[in-house]
Amino acid sequence: MSMNSDIKDKARTSRSWRDVDLRAVAPFAALALLLIVGALVNPNFIGISNLANVATRSAFIAIIAVGATFVISAGDLDLSVGSMVAFVASLMILFMNSGAVADPTMAVVAAIVLTILAGAACGLVNGLITTVGRIEPFIATLGTMGIYRGLTTWLSQGGAITLKSPDMQNMVRPAYFGNVLGLPVPIVVILVVTIIAAFILYRTRYGRHVVAVGSSSDVARYSGIAVNRVRVIAFVIQGLCVAITVLLYVPRLGSTSATTGILWELQAITAVVVGGTALKGGAGRVWGTICGAFILELVGNIMLLSNFISEYLIGAIQGSIIIIAMLVQRSLVRKS
Amino acid sequence: MSQGGAVVMAASHICKSFGGVQVLFSVDFELRRGEVHALMGENGAGKSTLVKVLSGFEQPTSGRILLDGQEVHFANNRAAEAAGIVLIHQEFNLAEHLTVTESMFLGREITHFGILDRKTMRARTREILDTLGSHVHENALISSLSVADKQMVEIAKAISREARVVFMDEPTAVLSREETRILFDQVRRLRAEGTSFVFVSHKLDEVMELADRVTVLRDGQWVKTADAADLDGETIAQLMVGRELSSLYPAKHEPDVDETVALSVRDLSTGYVKNASFEVRKGEVFGFSGLIGSGRSELMEAIAGIRARLSGEVEVYGKPLAAHDVRAANQAGLAYMTKDRKGKGLLLLEGMTTNLTLQSLERHGSLLYLDPKSESEAMQKARRRFDIRVRDGNVVAGRMSGGNQQKLLLAKVMETDPRIVIIDEPTRGIDVGAKQQIYHFISSLARDGWSIIVVSSEMPEIIGLCTRVAVMREGRLAGILEGDEINEQEIMRYAAGLKRRDGAAAAMTASA
Q: Which residue of A has its CA nearest to B371?
């Protein structure tokens, strides 16, 4: 699938460079530029192991951001994803610790199902509050952000929740540290999630509905699209993406606390916006989002490998990236 | 009329391209002091672009603009406004959350030692609105105003800026006749004081009534500039289209009296509309007339399931239609085409195909998969069937001309394969050529057994197309006219409340 997977008019006879949407290309150009800069800064940077490491580390934000692409394309916003990761992960570990299912294998399977259901439920709550409750998504998810975070703190009694059974720990470890055909599992998961998401967004009726609702909910309504249902499903997709992230996160650390996933929502939104999706809704770019998540992680990596900028400035640099990305996007809109 | 007034503004050899597509080809234009200069042409002829170039919203690719004989360059619209050149937009430029007074003085608020002098601003606003004969309250929120009132505020705003040159892009498209008359009186008053107007309109009769001179553009090129007195409507129409116009309205085709009833509406009420009942037969073109705000669109939206209905029933070919369910209506073969093509009809930032298939996606591909090939085939067909003319097939809907947008919207609605089509304002703000095409399309649909409801504020359209006409007034069906009754006077009597369905003429003394 091409990075710019909009449904193109196939009737067009020839594709000239003029037809390329610069906004879709910009994030990939930025990524290429970063790779070159990184290679100049430190020769180790461009090595396969370093890059695979960076991609693996970007998995959490990348997968959450894929979900956020749906929510943002539909014209909404979800600030609760970071708290949701902490909450769902706590539920998963507590369930595995509870011994409700005696057989360790079955317990892990049940925990996975529970995690997915919990993620979807959290998304559903966000969706229903914004649509049925008619509350601005910013405010609604600001509220649930506090609720999910608070519940996590309460569940952990202010401390950490740690997976006790060493059996189960060993069983889930490969979900983060394993390899499939030589690729680290998180990278495989990113690819699979993104391919599915791109298919849904570009090649299904639902995906088209998301774009329509995000571009103009009036036009969507007059076209017979169930606007609220489309929005709620987008929030549920976001919840599912959070659940998948948790399924990678718990195996990695085997523990959560009240500070798990703090500020991840901002990183996810940054990845989406850097990837070329308009924050006001409409155009969604799944592959751009993945690219945005890589860019964020790469910048941190380059700063670690280089000596001239303190790695304590990572937050400031990431903040600058989102602003620069918006300025670049705007200048490209003017030209087109 | 000041035929020999000095030239205020002149444009010479203006060319303008958008991303490689040339829209204006070396256009010359000249505006005298104290004249109303009509700019005419089909959609896509370049009128709006020329107006935008002259008012600083767009930069010409080449060519010169002269103001009082001096060459000027407007870096942006503010610079043009500072020079006394104001553009009243086709689309409104008002912030919904401000009051009328705040909008009028936006960006040039009157202050006393840095504090807003609200009292003076309110008084000044009232004064201007009064001269315009507008009853809009100066403290009303913009969002609470009707479309026509918003237009009046826009006009008041331009007047309050004491502009020397006022560009008006389709100012009367949303105004009632009375409002149009008031606007024209103001234009004449200001003209007498030396203000110059450039007036873009598709309504030939208005142009003939108001304009001193007329310039016609066709396909981005200057065709003719002449005194309005030397032209008649027929000539202008021919200049615009570049060919002889056959009759604008096709011959009417009346269905048999005992033809099947396609749509039956009984006692339908919404918040505003009360107890509307009517029937439309197979193959009929049924008109809905009435003043703006008489509840026509609300009734249609309730029938089509976009709006909830409080009570009443709708039947499509004898089968009851679920309330407030657009998809159910589409599946039953009933489709509604909105009058607000930019706000509710088309996704302006998306391409033509996305728009075309939006309402009928289930026709393309199986359960989950959306088939791009099938979609683009539909697009090919629609472009032929509706004669959608674009230079670049990937153009986003927002960049298309009004006529092409309207055809695309009609195509989108027809994609749902309806048997009954409700068309709200079929030709608002589009050119004569496209109008004629849409009229003929409606007529041929009816001949082939489709039932069409045409809602329109343009009386000639209703009279020229429909075999029966319902007139609405203040949310009620005032009457249904047939045959010879369908004429302007009769419709106005019902619309203005001088006559009702029961025949009891309320006040026949005051002739409409």
A: A203
Give the residue ranges of DSSP H helices in chain A: 22-41, 48-57, 59-73, 81-98, 104-131, 137-155, 166-172, 174-177, 185-203, 205-215, 217-222, 227-253, 264-274, 286-305, 314-335
Cα dihedral A163, A168, A169, A172, rounded to 10, equals -120
**What is the sign, positive or negative, of the torsion defined by CA atoms of B177, B179, B183, B188?**
positive
Report the alpha-carbon distance of residue A271 to residue A61 in Å, rounded.
Answer: 8
- Model confidence pLDDT, tens digit, residues B114-167: 888 888 899 999 988 888 777 888 888 888 887 778 877 887 888 787 788 999
> What is the longest distance spanned by two Cα atoms in chain B?
77
Q: How far apart are CA A17 and CA B163, in angstroms?
A: 44
Best of B344, B352, B391 to disrupt the A interface (most A CBs within 10 Å) is B344
Assigned token pair, B180: 């149009």
The domains located in chain B, with CATH, are: 7-241 (3.40.50.300), 253-333+418-512 (3.40.50.300), 347-415 (no CATH)
ipTM associated with this complex: 0.85
Residue A238, C-beta contacts closer than 8 angstroms, at least 6 positions apart:
A64, A67, A68, A70, A71, A78, A81, A123, A126
Which residues does chain A have within 8 Å of residue B372's beta carbon, measured at their own beta carbons?
A: 7-8, 10, 203
Task: Give per-residue pLDDT as tens, A198-217.
Answer: 999 999 999 999 999 999 99
Q: Per the structure block, which two tokens stand in for B69?
A: 């004989």
In B, which residues are within 8 Å of A282 by CB distance?
Answer: 347, 349-350
CA dihedral sign, ordered A291, A295, A301, A305: positive
Contact check, Cβ <8 Å, A204/B393: no
| A102-150 pLDDT tens trace | 898 999 999 999 999 999 999 999 999 999 999 999 999 999 999 999 9
CB contact under 8 A, A9 and B327: no
Residues 6+ apart with CB under 8 A from B166: B86, B87, B88, B158, B190, B195, B196, B197, B198
What share of chain A in percent tops pLDDT 90?
68
Largest separation between any pair of C-alpha atoms in chain A:
64
Amino acid identity, position B241: V
* Structure tokens, B135: 């009853």
CB contact B503 to A (< 8 Å): no
B395 touches chain A (CB under 8 A): no
Nearest to A262 by CA among A116, A152, A135, A130: A152
Tell me the shortest Cα–Cα distance from A278 to chain B, in angstroms: 12
Q: What residue of A is the nearest CA neighbor of B373?
A: A10
Question: Would you tell me how many other CB atoms lie within 10 Å of the CB of residue A44?
Answer: 11
Taking any CB pair shorter than 8 Å as contact, residues of chain A touching chain B are 7-12, 18-19, 203-205, 207-209, 211-212, 215-216, 218-226, 282-283, 336
Say if the Cβ atoms of B336 and A208 lie within 8 Å: no
Residues of B within 8 A of A16 (CB-CB) are none
CB atoms within 10 A of CB A150: 13
Phi-psi region of B37 (alpha: psi -120 to 50; beta: other; left: phi over 0): beta
Residue among A222, A230, A280, A333 with most chain B CBs within 10 A, to mutate: A222
Instruction: Answer positive or negative: Cα dihedral of B141, B144, B149, B151.
Output: positive
The alpha carbon of residue A295 is apart from the nearest alpha carbon of chain B, in Å, by: 27
How do B36-40 and B213-218 pair as beta strands?
Answer: parallel
Tell me, yes or no, if B41 comes closer than 8 A to chain A by beta carbon. Answer: no
Please name which of B179, B122, B126 lies closest in space to residue B151, comparing C-alpha atoms.
B179
